[in-house]
Amino acid sequence: MKKSDIPQDRGSKDTSNFKELCYATDEEGNYVTGNSTGWDPKKIALDNAIEEIHERTENAKQRVLKKETSPIEYYMELNKMDVSILASYIGFWSWRVKRHFKVKVFHKLSDKILKKYADLFKISINQLKDIEYGN
């Protein structure tokens, strides 16, 4: 893309003061850098991804409130993780993390295991046990 073709579409309100560094070519074909204020297709894709994250988080919250899953799944979604990422951060196998999503299993977890999850999510054990704690 030529430097003069760098997109200058308006970004979202959240990114209106930011500029993105892009690489382009000048008139002589040399690579140069230029700033972009945004690109509509990229904004649409990011907005869609963020909306999907919000939906998954809200679905997980509703499932916790209905006692269909443990709060671990909700906090995993809230922190934009998946099972494999959560398992690697917490130091458990993925199958073990999935098992902790089961409400009966979650209620039997030791404080030591709950503390590992709480520390990772940067919350207290009470917040981990009750997603509406402190809200």
Features:
2 domains, 7 helices, 135 residues, two-stranded antiparallel sheet, mainly alpha, single chain
- Overall shape: elongated
Residue stretches low in confidence (pLDDT < 50, at least 5 long) are none
Q: Which CATH C-level class of the largest domain is it?
A: Mainly Alpha
Mind describing the biggest β-sheet? 2 strands, antiparallel
Trace the largest sheet across and list its strands.
1-2
Give the number of DSSP strands: 2
The name of the CATH topology of the largest domain is: 434 Repressor (Amino-terminal Domain)
Kindly, what is the distance between the CA atoms of the first and last residues, rounded to a whole number of angstroms? 49 Å
Count, helices:
7
Q: Any guess at the CATH architecture of the largest domain? A: Orthogonal Bundle
Query: Helix content range of the residues, please?
Result: 40-55%
Would you tell me the overall average pLDDT?
Answer: 88
Strand content: 5-15%
